[in-house]
Amino acid sequence: MSILVLGANGYIGHQVVADLVANDNHVVAADVAFEHVPANVSQHFTDLTKPETIAALFDSLRDLDSPLDGAINLAYPRNSQYGRSLFDVTYESFCENVSLHLGGFFEFSKLAALFCQTQQRPFSLVNVSSIYGVIAPKFEIYNGTEMTVPVEYAAIKSALIHLNKYFAAYMKGTRFRINSISPGGILDSQPESFVQKYTENCTGKGMLDANDLFGSIRFLLGAGSEFINGQNLIIDDGFTL
Ligand SMILES: NC(=O)c1ccc[n+]([C@@H]2O[C@H](COP(=O)([O-])OP(=O)(O)OC[C@H]3O[C@@H](n4cnc5c(N)ncnc54)[C@H](O)[C@@H]3O)[C@@H](O)[C@H]2O)c1
Q1: For a tag on the chain, would you pick the N or C end, based on fewer CB atoms within 10 A?
Q2: What is the reported pTM?
Q3: For residues 47 and 159, what is the distance between their CA atoms, to the nearest angstrom?
Q4: How far apart, in whole angstroms, are the C-alpha atoms of residue 9 and residue 38?
Q5: Pocket test for ligand 1, best of 4, 76, 127 (most atoms within 8 A of CB)
Q6: Range of the domain at 97
């Protein structure tokens, strides 16, 4: 397959790039930074918050030797005030984060759908949502840490799941598919007390590693999921049960 990865430089993104390459896929990496992306992977500067750079990206991918089969959006745009607790979030900051993140995913999805129409071949888009787009936060597991689930995150990631359904229905009769994954927390040096409380809410491992997502991502991108459309695949070791 030939796959575009947006957010390719991120904690999860650069590991997804490595997995796709290791499984003999051609990968196009897009992000605003590239230090974690291998030099032999083609790199395209793309700012999700600047529609003209997304348009330029898709324009540049029209005549690839191995035409694009799909894309995964793992970008995580946010402003400098992101991550505050509820009553410290201003109206302006809330709106800005929704615009940067949800607005960006909207524009990327729209241009991917248009790209698919003009290419006249199947295209599978995977948008990355979160368990916190599915259930309300379990705030108690964050007690005693500086961490929280930002209110914008809940609004953005839940809206993204429904946006996918809208796109899937609108694109009926085309070869465009759009699905999301909702990962649980990915282990990345979080405080031990939090990890322990998080794990108590799971059925086995607890917090996941990025490589726990790889099989689901390749499945949704590939032909094996041809008739799965507008769905959200929760990968969370039972956290949302
Ligand atoms: N890490 C987790 O525990 C977790 C859990 C569930 C869902 N997710 C979701 O997975 C995705 C990736 O998470 P992560 O932990 O790898 O995040 P990250 O912050 O490590 O990586 C995000 C990437 O997005 C890029 N980015 C930021 N702003 C951008 C912009 N304007 N345009 C283009 N790229 C931009 C960054 O450069 C970075 O490479 C996010 O959407 C996140 O919400 C993460």
Answers
A1: C
A2: 0.98
A3: 21
A4: 10
A5: 76
A6: 2-235
Residues in contact with ligand 1 (CB, 6 Å cut-off): 7, 9-13, 31-33, 46-49, 74-77, 128, 130, 183, 185-186
Is residue 69 included in any domain, yes or no? yes
The residues pairing with 45 across neighbouring beta strands, listed in sequence order, are: 31
Q: Does residue 241 sit within a domain? A: no
Per-residue pLDDT tens digits for 38-96: 999 999 999 999 999 999 999 999 988 899 999 999 999 999 999 999 999 999 999 99
240, part of any domain: no
| Rounded Cα–Cα distance for residues 35 and 16 (Å) | 15
Residue 173 C-alpha to ligand 1 middle, in angstroms? Answer: 32
Total domain count for the chain?
A: 1
Q: Is residue 193 a contact partner of residue 145, using CB atoms and an 8 Å limit? A: yes
Tokens of residue 123, six digits: 């295209």
CATH number for 12:
3.40.50.720
CA-to-CA dists, residue 170 to 143, 161, 175, 180, angstroms:
42, 15, 12, 16
